[in-house]
Amino acid sequence: MIRVKRVETKKELREFLLLPFNIYRGDKNWVPPLISDVAETIDPKKNPFFAHAERELFLAEKDGKVLGRVASIIDYNYNNYHKENIGYFGFFESFPDYDVACALFDQVREELKKKGMQRMLGPANPGLYDECGFLFEGFESPPVLKMSYNPPYYIEFCERYGMRKEKDFYAYSIRTDQEVPEKLKRVLGYLQEKKNIRVRRIDLKRLDKEILLVKEIYNDAWSENWDFAPLTDAEFDYLGKKLKPIAIRELLPIVEIDGEPAGVSLALPDYNQVLKRLNGRLFPFGIFKFLIYKNKIDCARLWALGVKRKFHNLGIDALLYYETFESAKRLGYKWGEVSQILEDNIAVIRPIEMWGCRLYKKTRIYGMEI
Fold first, then answer.
1. Which of 88, 189, 218, 290 registers the highest number of CB atoms within 10 A of its CB?
2. What's the rounded Cα separation, in Å, for the pair 224 and 222?
3. Directed axis angle between helix 233-243 and helix 207-221, to 10°?
4. Side-chain half-sphere exposure of 300, counting CA atoms within 13 A
5. Is 136 helix (H, G, I), strand (E, B) or coil?
6. What pTM does this model have?
7. CA 341 to CA 104: how far, in whole Å?
8. Alpha carbons 238 and 138: distance in angstroms, whole number
9. Axis crossing angle, helix 316-330 with helix 346-355, rounded to the nearest 10
10. pLDDT digits 0-9 by tens, 123-137
11. Are residues 10 and 140 in the same domain?
């Protein structure tokens, strides 16, 4: 018998947080997240996402052992913006037992149906702008910072249950010793001669002010994307506080045209290379490993790049790629990842591929009617 129970006690929450450490034991490519970070992410009192969203956590037990977990999530901000009634399943993990997965999916569908939702998408952890999707191509290497990783059988579980592809996301890799293509050099040369175009770096010492400019660009540049929902001021403040300790100023170029913020690129060192050595805990001894290995990171992830719509087709995206690429090279990074890119966002994919980036990982959002 499989029993699905709601997470209500501290003991059950701990079981929810620690389950992946049992499932991925021995998997050389899995990167253990910081347990405290996941706990904060799912805590409605600490994560401002839950000011406009709700979640329920569940565990699946079989023969007295916890074999799976899942969260039922509704983001009312996303639904109001898109005029939808969509709920998510998220934070899904399971041993290779389809009956366990089926019981968990059933539980989420029942929970969402009670709340009036008509469709279920996932995984979203907790939203579509955060870590989301199941990896289905590119299992040969560890994920970079805040990217998905899972056993291949999760794909089988979803499709056997009746879920179908909703959207795919692409991840591209690029080596910093690659040459800048000649066509892009001509575009960059033209832009660099324009006196009304200025490139600078985000000032981390006044991040509270700078984050407002990032918000201005984000809410314009991403507004027509399938996965977009406007972030609140509290969410942007929270994002700034999370990024400040790990961000490097050189990897955060912003382009201004006639003094107006036009586009921004946000790249971060791949701290997964450090997290892989910490086994989910920064204290008491993980902090020493963190300090030792953070200076040995050889990759950066470009995880957000946006240009206001009125400045499209001017080559601003190419300028931001170039500035990020050159900064990463100067900092000694050997390669980088550009992700996540919607499969049908041709305007973004075209310059990435023109640059010589290689498509090497794909993740998928699944969906179904409830």
1. 88
2. 6
3. 120
4. 28
5. strand
6. 0.96
7. 29
8. 31
9. 40
10. 999 999 899 999 999
11. yes
Name the phi and psi angles at 33, rounded to 5. Answer: -75, 160
CATH number, position 258: 3.40.630.30
Half-sphere exposure of 254 (CA within 13 A, CB side): 19
Tell me whether the omega of the peptide bond preceding residue 284 falls within 30 degrees of 0, making it cis. yes
Does any domain span residue 293? yes
- In this structure, are residues 349 and 101 in contact, taking their beta carbons and an 8 Å threshold? no
φ, ψ dihedrals at 263, nearest 5°: -160, 160
d(CA 69, CA 110): 15
* 239 and 180 within one domain: yes
Mapped onto helix, strand or coil, the DSSP state of residue 330 is helix
Instruction: Let me know: does 75 contact 132? Beta carbons within 8 Å.
Output: no
| Overall number of domains in the chain | 2
Can you tell me the distance from the alpha carbon of 72 to that of 185, in angstroms, rounded to the nearest whole number? 48
Q: Are 119 and 368 in contact (CB under 8 A)?
A: yes
Cα angle: 362, vertex 232, 200; to 5 degrees: 70
What type of residue is 81?
Y
Tell me, letter by letter, the H, E, C secondary structure of 213-282: HHHHHHHHHCCCCCCCCCCCHHHHHHHHHHHCCCCCHHHCEEEEECCEEEEEEEEEECCHHHHCCCCCCC
DSSP secondary structure string for all residues of 277-313: TTTT--TTTHHHHHHHHGGG--EEEEEEEEE-GGGTT
Residue range 234-281, pLDDT digits in tens: 999 999 999 999 999 999 999 999 999 999 999 999 999 999 999 999
